[in-house]
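Pilot study result, target chain (441 residues):
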Amino acid sequence: MAGAMDLDRWHDRLAGLIAEYEVPGANLAFLHEGEVHEFAAGVLNVDTGVEVTTDSLFQIGSVSKVWTATQIMLLVERGELTLETPVAQILPEFRVADPEVTKTVTIRHLLSHTSGIDGDFFLDTGRGDDCIEKYVEACADLAQNHPLGATQSYCNAGFTIAGRVVERLTGKVWDAALREQIIEPLGLTHTHTLPEDVLRFRGAMGHMDGAPAPVWGLMRSCGPAGLICARPADVVAFARAHLGTGLLADPRAMWEPQVDIPNPYTLGKQWGLGWILDEWQGRRVISHGGNTIGQAAMLWVVPDTETVVCVLANGGHTAAFQHALATELFDELLGLAVPPVLGPPAEPFETDVERYAGVYERAGSRMTLTVRDGRLSLYGEATGALAGVQPPMEFDLVPVDDVTFVGRPEGEPQWLSAVFYELADGSPYVHLGVRATPKIA
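Predicted structure:
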């Protein structure tokens, strides 16, 4: 338990882990047995050499989605809408390409990633306070990645739309509503959404291939999906508020399972409202991760022990770094074993790989799967706005069973998992990176 922990050791241990996984800098905070402990290591930017301190701000990326979901749930508790409220009831101007989805997609669909709206739609609509409004207008041509409610697929667009719902119901821009609903009530002093505010603090720069990323951050229009910057202690304080009634009267409503994740080997087994849901050795774990351009965040909560861990990093092999840190830290804090990353089977598994060859595509991503010498090979490329900042990846997929495969891009220490499956109507999909991608050819 924490009483037996050598807390001083974690200053050196964090430095050791970032060196092992080529992470320029990292910031760690955890709550255990009622106390928050903070640690920092490395540099914010390899070009400037400015050191990370515990009050440095990193981009928390999609961990922001839990904050946006919390904003919606605060409005639900006030009776301003329900989870079954159609989006179009709040936003009569809302449109997507499918007219039936336009009419029937609900708040619950948005918060559980089951809307089927093609989710990786990144569009710069400017820096003005109307940027989210303009983004939602531009969703009119967004196609369906899958039928409404048919499966789970990660949907950035859905959370920006949810942010617009917040704007409409509060009468404030999303950033201002976030400050009024969450940041100020919790007394968070190191949480901001706009770069001109982050500049007042030590702010981390993302890194790709060991060098500063080509741009600092994403466009303002995706704020509700992933634009919060914070120190980890502020993120821990936010999560701690979900363990009692610090914000919501019933925060546990957000932990109720909404949908099974078709690929349970990446982040968790189910999605709640905002939160990802999992079980480690029979213990409930709620979490969320986030990746921006060269930065990565991870937040874990073990509710029955009121333990919260947040680690933020600015480049390197972040997924492997996060897993190694969690494995060591949760064992030391709670004697709790973090599930290992799925890798290749001990004995080779033979299956028909030809059936999975083809082109799989959704907004923002195209994957071409081919068979070479009996092996399934994946070539993945970003399309759209992020094509220029995300390099293509190519690797072989190794079968674990008839539908589950793992692969490891060159130079990466950690395996990725992919699950092939069909919807109820027989449509073929691959689930990779918590996204469902349909086979189109």
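One observation from the pilot: The radius of gyration is 21 Å. A full batch analysis is planned for the follow-on phase.
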